[in-house]
Amino acid sequence: MNTIGHLINGQLVSTAQRMQDVFNPATGEVSKQVALAPKETVEDAIAAAQAAFPAWRDTPPLKRARVMFRFKELLEQNADKICEMIGQEHGKICHDAAGELQRGIENVEFACGAPELLKGEFSKNVGPNIDSWSEFQPLGVVAGITPFNFPAMVPMWMFPLAIVCGNTFVLKPSERDPSSTLYIAQLLHEAGLPEGVLNVVNGDKEAVDVLLTDKRVQAVSFVGSTPIAEYIYATASANGKRCQALGGAKNHAIVMPDADMDNAVNQLLGAAFGSSGERCMALSVAVAVGDEAADTLVAKMQAAMKNLTVGEYSDKNNDFGPVITRAHQQKVVGYINSAEADGATVIVDGREPSISGYENGFFVGATLIDGVTPTMQSYQEEIFGPVLQVVRVATMEEAMQLINDHEYGNGTCIFTRDGEAARYFSTHIQVGMVGINVPLPVPVAYHSFGGWKRSLFGDLHAYGPDGVRFYTRRKTITQRWPSSGVREGVSFAFPS
Ligand code: NAD
Question: Which atom of ligand 1 is nearest to the CA of 172?
Fold first, then answer.
């Protein structure tokens, strides 16, 4: 059996005390085992990052960026291998994995602009013969903790930018699908990254807690579920660290009566069921305004869902794959059961999909539920599966109130032909990422990604301009060189 270890100081190492099974979710079989790092291994990784920091901090940004240019090429050359690893352990279909990887590469491309991103701010003559500038200095050792659902992309939201800013990094990927993340880190070394600048430790809470409390770690980026995000933010902050912790979601799409319904249905299919609904930006609630719109939407969705195919990652014809674990499969089915028990109607039922040859896989078929109300548990909580719930309301205001009242505020979308309604929606909705006829408004790499309310703890969003701010510390320097004519005596007041 293959075992997956850690990458510390540029070397693959393994700690064999505690191991965890890694599954192929399409077959339900254990395919590998991952080592769960004990405290000492995480401390070794932090020490390696700490030792690598001074030389890396002093490496010119242009040279740091050149490593990223080579890294981008290696990612593209090895894309098929990376997507294969993602498919084997996460289960997402190869075309979906390729999309994830591409979004990750776009963050590497952004990081290639390090010399420009780190230029700082300069003001000449802020006083007589006095100049002032702000520069952005790296923090030191920073840590990233990432979820299972994007094993390539989410780590690349973090370490490329942190590293080009001059930091060194310890990454703790998801223990459920660790192979592609570890391989990507190896490619960065092949691209010329000095040893110790990026270290990867696999593990669970034990490893994470070391990163949250060790004094040498200056900042923590986290992406995962809300209860863990809240814990990470509270613990890291209490230990004096800068922290951004991105959490879970419940993303609503408002379907207005004037929407292009065929387009809305197509967009909803991909956004609700793509990647088995295991995306933090998945649209999991359609709020239909007016019964006529709701009836049309449900009828068209029901018809379109007949054509969806669920199955194994390597078959390009499949639309989406299994969910990540048996426990998660049961949890998703549990939410469908609870919605039904609470009085909603299951229009398309994915609870018992039959996938020939993959009977033991962790599959859930695409599911459509109508008549969902805000008091239902299935509405309030994140399902993270291929389940679209329809809520019926009478007005757009009512639809917006639902969204604004929800504890999560990650993404949302409105389907309409009315520009005025769309503008009103985007101005007043209490959500961090908004789409207008765009179902998954994931910001591109040169903007920043983040939700509002309990979808993000911290001030700065992930990657893009906010990422540069997160991974640097501002220092403002004011300078005067005395020369004839500007020599002054003692002053006890601010110059005016
Ligand atoms: P998770 O919270 O279970 O795990 C995320 C990370 O935290 C993993 O590395 C895991 O090992 C670690 N972890 C788990 N339990 C821990 C504990 N008790 N103490 C310390 N660390 C712990 O999340 P997941 O199931 O891997 O990912 C799915 C979740 O991530 C969903 O809620 C999804 O919405 C969210 N997500 C959010 C975003 C976003 O940008 N907001 C993006 C992707 C995923």
Answer: 9
Does this chain's domain 3-247+455-479 share its CATH topology with 251-436? no
| Best residue for ligand 1 mutational test, from 36, 148, 250, 449 (most atoms within 8 Å of Cβ) | 148
- For residue 173, the CA-to-ligand 1 centroid distance in Å is 10
CATH architecture of the domain with range 251-436: 3-Layer(aba) Sandwich (3.40)
Amino acid at 262: D
**484 band by pLDDT with thresholds 50, 70 and 90:** low
Weakest mean pLDDT among 53-62, 458-467, 481-490: 481-490
Active site annotation includes 243: no
116-145 pLDDT, tens per residue?
999 999 999 999 889 999 999 999 999 999
358 CA to centre of ligand 1 in angstroms: 27
- Strand ranges across the sheet with 367-370: 345-348, 367-370, 387-393, 283-289, 251-255, 411-415, 433-436
DSSP type of residue 274: G
pLDDT of res. 487? 60
**What kind and span of H or E run contains 332?**
helix 326-341
Give me the architecture of the 3-247+455-479 domain, per CATH: 3-Layer(aba) Sandwich (3.40)
Q: Which residues pair with 13 in a beta bridge?
A: 6
Q: DSSP letters along 86-153, please?
A: HHHHT---HHHHHHHHHHHHHHHHHHTTHHHHT--EEEEEEETTEEEEEEEEE-SEEEEE--SS-TTH
Give the confidence band of 346 by pLDDT, cuts at 50, 70, 90: very high
Ordered by start, the domain boundaries in the chain are 3-247+455-479, 251-436
Q: How far is the CA of 143 from the centre of ligand 1 (A)?
A: 15
- According to the model, what pLDDT value does residue 173 have? 98
Q: Check if the beta carbon of residue 44 is closer than 8 Å to that of residue 143.
A: no
The single-letter code of the amino acid at 346 is V
Distance CA 440, CA 434 (A): 8
pLDDT tens digits, one per residue of 278-324: 999 999 999 999 999 999 999 999 999 999 999 999 999 999 999 99
Predicted confidence at residue 269, as pLDDT, reads 98
Determine the residue of 208, 222, 232 to mutate for testing ligand 1's pocket, defined as the one with the most ligand atoms within 8 A of the Cβ atom: 208
266 burial (CB, 10 Å; 0-12 / 13-18 / 19+) is middle
Q: Which residues contact ligand 1 via a Cβ below 6 A?
A: 145-150, 154, 172, 174-175, 204-205, 208, 223-225, 228, 246-249, 280, 382, 384, 410, 451, 455
Q: What is the pLDDT of residue 493?
A: 81
Residue of the CA atom closest to atom 19 of ligand 1: 205
Question: How far does residue 225's CA lie from ligand 1's centre (Å)?
Answer: 4
pLDDT of the residue at 488: 63
Over range 180-204, report the average pLDDT.
98
